[in-house]
Amino acid sequence: MATDKIKVAVRVRPFNRRELELGTQCVVEMTGQQTILQHPITMDKIDRLAHTRIQSNPKHVL
User: Any one Gene Ontology biological process term (predicted)?
Assistant: First the structure.
């Protein structure tokens, strides 16, 4: 059990028109090699994931 590892993949897509109109906030923050998940209501940081790989498609950058 001590050698078990869990890998988590998080994919963030651009907001659609409706989400933008509603003022939706993204709950995933990617900084360097870290991904931070925030509580959707309070925006408190609830979890940090290491080894972030940021990959973006220029077509989807707003």
Answer: microtubule-based movement
